Amino acid sequence: MLSAFGRAFKTPDLRRKLLFTVSIIVIYRLGVFIPAPGVSFENVQQCLALGGATGGVYDIVNLFSGGALLQLSIFALGVMPYITASIIVQLLRVVIPRFQELHEEGAQGQTKLTQYTRYLTIALALLNSTTVVTMARSGALLGDCPVPIIPDDGIFNILLIIVALTAGTGVIMWLGEQITEKGVGNGMSLLIFTSIASAFPGAMGEIGRTQGWTIFAAVCAIGLLVIIAVVFVEQSQRRIPVQYAKRMVGRRTIGGTSTYIPLKVNMAGVIPLIFASSLLMLPGLIANFNTPQDGSLPPNWVLWINQYLVTGDHPLYMLLYFLLILGFAYFYVSITFNTEEVAGNMKKYGGFIPGVRAGRPTEQYLSYVLNRITLPGALYLAVIAMIPLIALVMFNANQNFPFGGSSLLIVVGVGLDTVKQIDAQLQQRNYEGLLR
């Protein structure tokens, strides 16, 4: 393995790509610690030291931003606006026929969809930054803090902070695209990987200090087993054989080949977890805005939401989270893998599944297999998502517990994809890859 890494850095083109990727990641991490203009860095650190940042509806956003949200840095929004915009554009293909036409046009259509995603990212960043600044101004972002995070809450200063946070999202989007074009791996995925991985040492150190080193060793052992299980499931797939009949095109004979359609056990990836977490955020966010700031007793429905739907240690929250993940897994897989489109393309190019007629029977067969394989994948996602919530009860950890949930799935998935890309480039040049 070490010799393989040595070969990677000895190859000039690959070495240049790796160093470029690392330099972009360093720039991104530096931006996490640069406070936005108009924000008091000393007051923010004082509020964080008091423990006001633990829990809350913005835990997942803070995790995906590498801790930048609760620091109110220029990169406070992280990659969440881009992720949300990408998901929305992908889902709009079902609603807007024009988006589906662009998806089917190839590279030119994908360029147009990417442009729409960028515009929507900036719009969502503007909305999110306004919400974050409003919560910081009212003191709801970091809980009960004795000092103001934004000392000067004049309209000009507030607008300056909103513009800075929105511009930071644009810079993050540009950095991710630069990695994709000139570096190694998917740029936005690597930035998410960096944000989540940066929280691992602090989370593990906190477990060791508060729970003892015996619990720390047990958590590490459990984490290793979970990582092995995630790698195994993420690499698992059902291969449906496909044969193409021979046909004459002019004087050439094409076709007659055999291939397969790979259906992954976890075709939805981490998207159902993000959907479910975002949906469960809404009740707490609504309750937060309806909580009186003068110290008076909030309405009964606000108290009920704060008791049952805000903290992850309540059984009702866990049950809703589990069921939402199952539902969103089936929903997202049905949208991203269009069995009617796949069956139509196979029939168009003379392909068929052995023992299954082309056309409608092929579509029904693919739907049957897809539904059967989505069930274990959805259950796998739900079980992995429950690990941080169980740790919240057992170890008094927060919902950003490192070994479980969306964090572990993203870290393992992005790591596997990046290593595969480096391995493929090594095989092109040395006939021997990174993996053996």
UniProtKB/TrEMBL annotation:
Known partners and oligomeric status: Component of the Sec protein translocase complex. Heterotrimer consisting of SecY, SecE and SecG subunits. The heterotrimers can form oligomers, although 1 heterotrimer is thought to be able to translocate proteins. Interacts with the ribosome. Interacts with SecDF, and other proteins may be involved. Interacts with SecA.
Function summary: The central subunit of the protein translocation channel SecYEG. Consists of two halves formed by TMs 1-5 and 6-10. These two domains form a lateral gate at the front which open onto the bilayer between TMs 2 and 7, and are clamped together by SecE at the back. The channel is closed by both a pore ring composed of hydrophobic SecY resides and a short helix (helix 2A) on the extracellular side of the membrane which forms a plug. The plug probably moves laterally to allow the channel to open. The ring and the pore may move independently.
Chain segments annotated as transmembrane: 18-36, 72-96, 116-135, 155-176, 188-207, 213-233, 316-337, 377-395
UniProt membrane topology term: Multi-pass membrane protein
GO biological process, one term: intracellular protein transmembrane transport
Localization terms from the record: Cell membrane; Membrane
UniProt-recorded name of the protein: Protein translocase subunit SecY
Keywords noted in UniProt: Cell membrane, Membrane, Protein transport, Translocation, Transmembrane, Transmembrane helix, Transport
InterPro entries per the UniProt record, alphabetical: SecY, SecY/SEC61-alpha, SecY_CS, SecY_dom_sf
One Gene Ontology cellular component: plasma membrane
SUPFAM superfamilies hit by this protein: Preprotein translocase SecY subunit (SSF103491)
Protein family (similarity comment): Belongs to the SecY/SEC61-alpha family.
Keyword check for Transport: yes
